[in-house]
Hints:
Layout: E1 2-6, H1 13-27, E2 31-36, E3 50-54, H2 68-83, E4 87-91, H3 93-106, E5 112-117, H4 120-123, H5 132-141, E6 144-147, H6 150-160, E7 167-168, H7 184-190, E8 196-201, H8 210-223, E9 226-231, H9 237-247, E10 253-257, H10 263-268, E11 271-274, H11 283-290, E12 295-298, H12 303-306, E13 313-316, H13 321-332, H14 335-352, H15 355-370
Parallel strand pairs: 1-2, 1-4, 2-3, 4-5, 5-6, 6-7, 8-9, 8-11, 9-10, 11-12, 12-13
Helix pairs in contact: 2-3, 3-5, 8-9, 8-13, 11-14
Amino acid sequence: MKVGIICYPSYGGSGVVATELGRQLAARGHFVHFISYDVPFKLNTYEANVTFHEVDVPSYPLFAYPPYLLALANKVVEVSRRYSLDILHAHYAIPHATCGFLARELLGGRLKVVTTLHGTDVTLLGSNPSFSDIIRFSIERSDGVTAVSEDLARVTRELFGIRSHIEVIYNFVDADKFRRLEVEELRRQICGPETRVLVHISNFRPVKRPVAVIDIFHAVQQELPAVLLLVGDGPEMARVQQRVDELGIAQHVKFLGKQEEVVEILSLSDLMLLPSTQESFGLVALEAMACQVPVIASRVGGLPEVVVNGRAGFLYSPEDLEGMAQGAISILSDPALREEMGLHARAIAVEKFSADEQVARYERYYRHVLENEVQA
Ligand code: GMT
């Protein structure tokens, strides 16, 4: 198949999933065309069967806001004509599903559009009156719609009253790449043998609650020798730094900034903290699990489908920071429990969320859409 993929190229789960899906499809012999304003950050090397097409938005004195959607749709049409795309896979509803609709109209219907909903496109933007109608319209006009968890499919149906089928295809992890590495030497450089290593990886948006991460860590660190690795950057970073200073724990918190590769960091880690207010799936939790890192997380959205409570970590209501700290302490103070949970977490990642299985499901779904077999 010839597949166009439109996604956000910067840091963020939807871009990571879209890029990894494209690479896996290309490895299976499909021709994949990424179309975006920049090269997706995980697409950092030559890949057979993969082409990137950059969208340029011309500046013009009348454009207070550059019309990216229009330039993107125009580029999709151009690429589709040149390479005879079969499928356009839009990751994230805004503006990509809308772009799919526009491009298909411009091509007189000669393109099938599959939209994958990733979470905040529905849960945050979907309830914003500035976008809700266009999101509903774009979802309803897609030829096929997938969601990354059962919970997200349910929320989408409830929020928009959508009655057509939404196919749930879970996010996935390359379990050969995401595996626990031997990093004892590196770990020795970071902390002493008794020190526990906690990690939080995100884009530091309010929905991730990185300030709560600091509070949970502080409670843990009062009971056990511990360090916290913070990976990523974003709008909450200044508040995070302020909280670290207020609590006087700067020497225990390491700011690592944005990192392209996190397998080594996860391999150093004993526990991940993810106290988000909302999480449609929690890709970063799955990556941690694949590296045998148990997860303490909020019982929200799709997280219970990923972090199996009591096996891969513990889930709490998002307000229950005290519970999260106690859960972290119980895992970190019992090496056998930590090890056992790590192994369970890896087993769940491999058995339920393997790239092979989920990518094959996307392939099957594309074929259904191409054959017009999408259930109404
Ligand atoms: O989590 C983010 O801030 C980024 C966002 C995105 O769209 O890139 O992530 C969403 O999509 C990811 C990939 O499907 C999911 O793993 C995340 O759970 C989801 N984030 C939220 O629902 C908050």
